[in-house]
Known about the structure:
By secondary structure, the chain is α/β, with parallel strands linked by helices. The chain has helices at 10-20, 25-34, 46-58, 73-81, 95-108, 121-130, 149-159, 185-198, and strands at 63-67, 87-92, 114-118, 137-142, 160-169, 203-208, 214-219. The protein has a seven-stranded mixed sheet, with helices on both faces. Helix 7 links the parallel strand 4 (137-142) and strand 5 (160-169). It starts with 9 loop residues before the first helix and ends with a strand. The structure holds calcium ion (CA). Calcium ion (CA) is lined by residues 42, 44, 143, 169-170.
Amino acid sequence: MSHRTTPLTETLHAYLLNVSLRENPLLTQLREETARLPEANMQISPEQGQLMQMLVRLLGAKKVIEVGTFTGYSSLAMALALPSDGCIVACDVSEIWTATARRYWREAGVCGRIDLRLGPATETLNGMIQQGSSGQYDFAFIDADKTGYADYYEKCLQLLRGGGVVAFDNTLWHGKVADPAVHDEDTEALRRFNRALHSDDRIDLSMIPIGDGLTLARKR
Ligand code: CA
């Protein structure tokens, strides 16, 4: 009987990947290219990408929002799991990082499924709400500035349909959220955010210890 999560040692993690990872070769290539950047730790793990593809398929998602695109690994993974008439609104502020993303989207033939919006995500999401898109989205993935999570969450929750899911990356924040000695702005923001979600009765909640922590909130 197991009543807690099995600790993921290097060996067990390698085993998990070995027997379950089905990574598209372009995703592998993009991951390897991104790993050479100084910001490489901002990229999600491949098993997390595969979980998000599973979520997209389980939800039968057609309309997806991504806040924080970076070099495009998660958007490419999700786009590959979407039906041909599916669409991701991908929000980021960096022309440079998303240039890499666009190159891979093109090569994978999924450009038509990704609508890149360069600019502050709050403005993009507000614009979508003003244009009457509330209640229309199936899935949202938030992986951007941690002090912005609470705001992105409110906007995405409004844009999601009932039963839609919003996923938040880095909610375990390399363990810092549980370390009382750490008080930097991002850690405090994530602590407040995690606590607020816990008591939020608009959603069903699950915090998954994959990657750096992935929290799922299903709109009731
Ligand atoms: Ca992240």
